[in-house]
Amino acid sequence: MHNLIVPVILSGGSGTRLWPMSRPEMPKQLLPLTSDETMLQLTAQRTNSNDFAAPIVVAGQRHADLVESQLTEAGIALQALILEPVARNTAPAIALAALAAKPEDVLLVMPSDHVIADLEKFRAAIRAALPIVSQGWLATFGINADKPETGYGWIQVGCEIALGVHKVERFVEKPRPERAEAMLARGDYAWNGGIFLFRADRFLEELSQHAPEMLVAAEKAMRAARHDGKRICPDEDEFFACPSDSIDYAVMERADRVAVVPVAMGWNDVGSWDALHAISELDGFGNVHRGEVLAIDTKNCLIRTDHVRVAAVHVQDLIVVASGDDILILPRGRSQDVKKLIEAMKQ
Asked: CA quadruple 304, 331, 337, 193: dihedral positive or negative?
């Protein structure tokens, strides 16, 4: 690796699917869900090596102090902390980071709340993509699909253009179950893990071509930004005018030279309490518990508490999460229904 790769960590999400622990003021990337470190700390530590520069983190203004203190605690020096005045999805967030970087910088864009169990494979995939990225390609990483998941976007893997690197044939939005079954059976599709590698100038070029009004708003917001140490606060009025769109829609699905590196690296987006149960270490009875939990004659449950004691006797296949004054109870396998709860509570 020649020039150091600049990690760009996207930490703007609100993580409502992990309510009641994850809330707008304390979203899931700032919580210690899979280990004693928070998701943000684990993400930053993935690129804490000689091949990588200090990270650029993009986060919401209300989380500035938390992000800084967690990264300091983890021994991570920041290059910049860009504080979005409003949330505008991933494409504008990445545009802000690309404008803060040098044009020739290679950016590794990562969500702050994913699990990657096999760091060696992750780094090998990055090394495989680097040569074509330096030639101007935009690269993404395709997660080896092992079930007909309808909650992810999918990528059709085309012909090999370099060792371990393929042209993207097409992106598929979150599919219906029968489409997901068919793609899994074909074997030439991977999940879209939302991790990208490209030069800063190449991303901005594609943005100017496919979403020019987004680039203009991001440029104006950065030109009028306030600087406070490592903190960069883009101008609120200018950024407010920015259209909201994901990098997939705004750029990746429209650009010509887009590559994918298929990789099995123990990836999980920890998008639900069920997903957390699936990747956690279980006790001898299939349970995951954290906090002050007493479980007797209890099987295949996830029980977490950050304050009150939770006692469970003779239950199975439940998710029980107690946080502050709120308690969530639902059957395992139904944790996507937390969305319904959030909607009901809004009303």
From this structure: positive
Partners of 276 in the β-ladder: none
Q: Which residue in this structure is represented by tokens 């004691």?
A: 309
Tokens of 63: 């989380």
Does pLDDT of 323 surpass 90?
Answer: yes
- pTM score of the predicted model: 0.94
d(CA 1, CA 210): 30
Q: How confident is the model over 30-81, as pLDDT tens digits?
A: 999 999 999 999 999 999 888 999 999 999 999 999 999 999 999 999 999 9
At residue 286's C-alpha, the angle toward residues 282 and 292, to 5°, is 65
Give 17-31 pLDDT, tens digit per residue: 899 999 988 999 999
DSSP, residue by residue, 91-123: HHHHHHHHHHS-TTPEEEEEETT-EES-HHHHH
| Side chain identity, residue 296 | I
3-state secondary structure of 34: coil
* Average confidence (pLDDT) over 313-324: 96
The residues pairing with 198 across neighbouring beta strands, listed in sequence order, are: 107
| Helix locations, the chain, DSSP H | 39-46, 64-73, 90-100, 119-134, 177-186, 200-210, 212-223, 236-240, 247, 273-279, 338-346
Confidence check: pLDDT of 2 > 80? no
Set out the domains of the chain in order of their start, with CATH numbers.
Answer: 6-268 (3.90.550.10), 273-346 (no CATH)
Q: For the residues of 247-285, what is the DSSP string, one character each?
A: HIIIIITT-SSEEEEEE-S-EE---SHHHHHHHSPP-TT
